[in-house]
Design a protein that fits this description.
By secondary structure, this protein is of the alpha+beta class. It has two domains: about 70 residues, Glutaredoxin (3-Layer(aba) Sandwich), CATH 3.40.30.10; about 110 residues, Glutathione S-transferase Yfyf (Class Pi), Chain A, domain 2. Strands 2-1-3-4 form a four-stranded mixed beta sheet, with helices on one face. Helix 1 runs parallel beside helix 2, helix 1 packs across helix 5 and helix 4 crosses helix 7. The N and C termini lie far apart (about 45 Å). The model has no long low-confidence stretch (mean pLDDT about 95). The structure holds glutathione.
Length: about 210
């Protein structure tokens, strides 16, 4: 089988989600550094990651994850049961939409990647304050985000949550989320997480 290539950057949360999935499933892959500004030939929307696998070029992390789930052996990242799989999709999407549009945007604003007025950044922060407790409640009821087994939902949440300690305002929110912190500690002990730890991170002024 052709080597799977992941085009993206290690600090990119969506790139890390796809890398985590490969490690969890035991898939050998090659990392090819690509920035949103250079990914154009593989993704006309200018976002990372994309993958190439033989003749296939694919972008959008959820499409990539579903592809590797179907094509490669290894531990399943979605439950078999239809209802449980739908719940898993629900939580993955809640991270990629509600949490990304709050916390990741705030992080990007603080790191200087997203030039928005301070007032807009404060709205992202306020939304993060509202959204994190919803994840905390869910992780108070279950070991993992979509139930008792690791799933793609966890692989979306971890890379984003891993940035919370880097910014005091996000750290303060995390400090009030004991269940997310319990889950994050458990996730941090997984070999997939250690193997995908970015060697560089965006620098954020205190
Ligand atoms: N829906 C896309 C989102 C990917 C995404 O937003 N990637 C970020 C990096 S983590 C990016 O490329 N941002 C550049 C931009 O939005 O211009 C996916 O799931 O793959």
């Amino acid at each position: 089988m052709a080597t799977l290539k992941i085009h993206g950057l290690p600090p990119s949360t969506f790139t890390r989600t796809v890398r985590l999935a490969c490690h969890e499933k035991g898939i050998d892959y090659e990392m090819v550094d690509a920035m949103p500004s250079t990914i154009g030939p593989l993704n006309p929307f200018g976002k990372i990651p994309a993958i190439t696998h033989g003749d296939l070029t694919l972008y959008e992390s959820i499409a990539i994850l579903r592809y590797i789930e179907r094509v490669f052996p290894g531990p399943k990242l979605w439950p078999e049961d239809a209802v449980a799989a739908a719940v898993c999709d629900q939580w993955a999407s809640a991270v990629a939409d509600s949490l990304v549009n709050a916390a990741l945007r705030y992080f990007a604003a603080r790191a200087g990647f997203l030039p928005v007025p301070a007032e807009m950044a404060q709205k992202y922060l306020a939304r993060t304050v509202e959204v994190v407790p919803i994840f905390d409640r869910q992780l108070g009821r279950h070991r993992f985000l979509a139930g008792e087994a690791l799933s793609v939902a966890d692989l979306y949440l971890y890379p984003l949550y891993a940035y919370f300690p880097d910014i005091a305002e996000l750290r303060a929110i995390a400090d009030k989320a004991p269940n997310v912190n319990r889950w994050a500690r458990e996730m941090a002990a997984r070999p997939s997480v250690a193997a995908t730890e970015p060697s560089f991170k965006p620098q954020v002024a205190a």
